[in-house]
Design a protein that fits this description.
8-stranded antiparallel β-barrel, elongated, alpha+beta, disordered N terminus
C-alpha cells in the first residue's frame, strides 16, 4: 500500500481507507489538542473545553469504567487521565468516522486535494510545536539551571524527571543544540520543497524527546508520540524514493510539490496569509520567551536574601541548641530561592517548606507553613554578607539563628566546567 504517493487519479481501496484514517486522526487530534492558546479563537476553545469537561468524565466512567473523581484543570502534565480519555475518544471517533466515510464515499477515485490540505495542517501544527519547544530551549526556559534546592538535595531523592531536568538544565550547549535542531526541523516544514527534510529532522529530534519522556517519566508522552506520527506521515510521501536512494543506491526523481490551486492571485493571497501567520508565531513566541526569561528565568533579578545558608549558631531562649541528628527543630541550612518560598533542611535531612514574606524596609521575614497558614513566625533579620542573623519568637520560644551564606558556584557541578583535554576521566 502506498498511502502518500504523487497525486494520481485513481487510488486503491486500501489507500483511500488509510487516507481517511490518517485525515480524521490528525484533524481530530489537532482540533482537540491545539497545544497552546491560539489567537482569535480562544473564546471558541473556552466553550469547547467546557463541553469536554462535562463529557470526558462521563465517557471515562461509562466506556472505561473509571471510578472516582477525575482531576480537572491545568496541572503542568500532558498525560493526565483526562488527556488519555480525550485521546481514546479521538481514536474512537477516528475509527467510527473512517467506517462511515468509507461506506458513503467508497466510489470516490482519489483525495488529492484533501490530502494536500491535511499535509498543510500537519506541517504547520508541527512547525508551531517545534518553534515553541525550540525557543524555550534556546532561551533556556524549559530547562533552568539547577536550583538552590536541587543543589543540596541528596542525589537519590531526586525523581527521574528531576534528574532529567538537572541533566538538561546544567548545560547551555546541549540546550542550544537541541533547541536549534527543533527550530531547524520546524522552519524546514514551511516550504513544500523542504518538508521531507524537515520531517526527517523532526522525527529524529522528537524520537529522542519521546524516549526521554519514557525513560525519565516526563508527562509529555502523548504529545511527543503524536509529533512522531506526524513526522512519519509527512515523510511517507517520499518513503519509497528515500528507501531506493539510501538502501538500494538507486537514483530517484524529484518529489511532486505541486498545489491544488494554480491561479497567481490564489498563490499570492495564500502566501501572504502564510507568512503573516509565520511572522506572528515567531515574533510572539520569542517575545514571550524573552519576557519570561527576564521575569522568572535566568535573567530575572534575584530576590532579597537569595541563597543557601548554613546554620552556624542556633539558640533557643538564650541557650545554644547542640546540633544532634535526632533534633527535628534545629535548622541545618536555609534555602531561599525566591521572594515567596523558602526551605529549611533539618539535622536529620528532612525538610520543611515555607511561604515567606520579606520586608526589606522593616528588615523582617515572615515564615508560613503551607499546611497551616495560621502558624506564622516573624523574624527580624540583619544581613551582613556572607552572614545572616535572624531573631524571633516561635511557639513562645525566643529563637536566634546565625547563618552563613554558601556560594552555590562552589558546588563541583557548577564549577567543574568544560575541558578539551582530560588526562583522566573526571567522573564523580
Amino acid at each position: 500500500m502506498q498511502l502518500l504517493a504523487s497525486p494520481d487519479t485513481h487510488w486503491s481501496s486500501s489507500k483511500k481507507i488509510a487516507f481517511r484514517l490518517c485525515f480524521l486522526y490528525f484533524a481530530l487530534y489537532i482540533f482537540f489538542t491545539p497545544n497552546n492558546d491560539l489567537p482569535v479563537i480562544d473564546l471558541f476553545y473556552e466553550q469547547l473545553n467546557k463541553l469536554l469537561d462535562r463529557f470526558i468524565p462521563w465517557f471515562a466512567k461509562n466506556v472505561f469504567g473509571y471510578k472516582g473523581e477525575m482531576p480537572m484543570g491545568p496541572s503542568g502534565s500532558g498525560d493526565t487521565t483526562y488527556d488519555y480519555m480525550l485521546w481514546f475518544f479521538t481514536i474512537i471517533l477516528t475509527i467510527a468516522g473512517t467506517i462511515i466515510w468509507t461506506i458513503f464515499d467508497r466510489h470516490r477515485k482519489s483525495y488529492n486535494t484533501l490530502y494536500y490540505w491535511i499535509r498543510v495542517i500537519v506541517r504547520y501544527y508541527l512547525f508551531y510545536t517545534m518553534v515553541i519547544y525550540g525557543s524555550y530551549k534556546v532561551i533556556k526556559l524549559q530547562f533552568p539551571y539547577p536550583s538552590l534546592l536541587r543543589l543540596v538535595q541528596p542525589y537519590g531523592d531526586s525523581s527521574p524527571m528531576g534528574l532529567a531536568w538537572t541533566y538538561m538544565g546544567y548545560s547551555d550547549t546541549y540546550n542550544y543544540f537541541t533547541g536549534f535542531a527543533e527550530l531547524l526541523g520546524g522552519v524546514l516544514l514551511l516550504t513544500r520543497r523542504t518538508t521531507t527534510l524537515g520531517a526527517i529532522v523532526c522525527l529524529g529530534v522528537m524520537s529522542n524527546v519521546f524516549m526521554i519522556n519514557m525513560g525519565y517519566d516526563v508527562p509529555v508522552k502523548l504529545l511527543s508520540f503524536n509529533t512522531i506520527l506526524m513526522s512519519i506521515f509527512l515523510i511517507w510521501k517520499d518513503g519509497k524514493k528515500l528507501a531506493a536512494f539510501f538502501f538500494q543506491n538507486k537514483p530517484t526523481t524529484s518529489s511532486d510539490v505541486g498545489a491544488p490551486y494554480t491561479s497567481r492571485k490564489a498563490r499570492i493571497i495564500l502566501a501572504t496569509i502564510k507568512w503573516l501567520i509565520v511572522a506572528f508565531v515567531l515574533i510572539s513566541t520569542f517575545y514571550g520567551a524573552f519576557t519570561a526569561q527576564s521575569m522568572y528565568g535566568a535573567k530575572a533579578p534575584k530576590p532579597p536574601l537569595y541563597g543557601i545558608y548554613y546554620t552556624e549558631d542556633f539558640t533557643r531562649n538564650n541557650e545554644t541548641v547542640v546540633p544532634l541528628t535526632t533534633d527535628t527543630t534545629r535548622w541545618k541550612r536555609l534555602i531561599i530561592p525566591s521572594a515567596k518560598y523558602a526551605t529549611a533542611q533539618l539535622l536529620n535531612d528532612s525538610i520543611k517548606r515555607f511561604m515567606i514574606n520579606i520586608d526589606t524596609v522593616a528588615k523582617t521575614v515572615e515564615f508560613t507553613p503551607p499546611s497551616d497558614t495560621l502558624a506564622k513566625s516573624r523574624f527580624s533579620y540583619k544581613a551582613d554578607p556572607p552572614y545572616l542573623t535572624m531573631s524571633g519568637v516561635v511557639k513562645n520560644d525566643t529563637i536566634r539563628i546565625r547563618l552563613k551564606r554558601f556560594d552555590e558556584k562552589q558546588f563541583l557541578l557548577m564549577k567543574r566546567g568544560f575541558h578539551w583535554v582530560n588526562e583522566f576521566p573526571y567522573n564523580r
